[in-house]
């Protein structure tokens, strides 16, 4: 697997365990209360939770330098939702944002979800994360719901926005 962003030297590949140190640094640098409700992680945290977590991670790189990552996982362990993948992490190093790297990562995550037999990709994004929300909309994701005031961050109640990408290009089946 190798996908090139519009800046031609940036490519996307599966992560390896050795990428963990750099990905922890990227997480640390991109943290803000507009981006995640979780507390800021230490720059030297152990990034990967195990082999599955490595397998579910794609990294964007330019030559040997990792610039960002996306994580795609099964939405739940329940067989009934086996057709749903979830984007559970996405970040691009601050020095390299605005280079269409996020877009390239999402594009490769979509391709991977299709390879896994996915019919939907879902995600949650904070209401105030304007950059990520614009990126997801540009990539074809649509808002499916809002958890109003889900998080209390910096003294303000913040919405959590549910978004999804339909991979079927079919009309949705009737809901029961
Ligand atoms: C969100 C994030 C991954 C975007 O990555 P990026 O590589 O800078 O984004 P791209 O260059 O691929 O942008 C693609 C599109 O997204 C939108 N976009 C990206 N950044 C934007 C911004 N700051 N403001 C408005 N729109 C933006 C634009 O539509 C853009 O298309 P354009 O280049 O034609 O204008 C990056 O800002 C980031 O790492 N943020 C911190 C972590 C985070 O918020 N993760 C998501 C958690 S849900």
What does this structure look like?
- The structure is a single chain.
- This protein starts with a strand and ends in a 10-residue tail after the last strand.
- The radius of gyration is 16 Å and the shape is globular.
- The chain has 4 helices and 8 strands, in the order E-E-H-H-E-E-E-H-E-H-E-E.
- It is an alpha+beta fold and 176 residues long.
- The chain is 23% helix and 35% strand.
- The longest helix has 15 residues.
- The protein has an 8-stranded mixed sheet.
- Bound molecules: coenzyme A.
- The site of coenzyme A (COA) has 20 residues, from strand 5, helix 3 and helix 4.
Overall geometry: globular
Task: Give the strand line-up of the largest sheet.
Answer: 1-2-3-4-5-6-8-7
Helicity level, as a percent range? 10-25%
CATH architecture of the domain at 3-119: 3-Layer(aba) Sandwich
Mean pLDDT: 93
Measured distance between first and last alpha carbons = 38 Å
* CATH superfamily descriptor of the domain at 3-119: Gcn5-related N-acetyltransferase (GNAT)
Which series of helices and strands comes N to C?
EEHHEEEHEHEE
Quote the beta fraction.
35-45%
Sheet with most strands: 8 strands, mixed
Rg of Cα set: 16 Å
Provide a count of the helices: 4
Q: How many E-type strands?
A: 8
Low-confidence segments, ≥5 residues, pLDDT <50? none
Quickly name the level 1 CATH class of the domain at 3-119. Answer: Alpha Beta
Query: Which structural class do the helices and strands define?
Result: alpha+beta
What bound compounds does this protein have?
Answer: coenzyme A
**CATH topology descriptor of the domain at 3-119:** Aminopeptidase
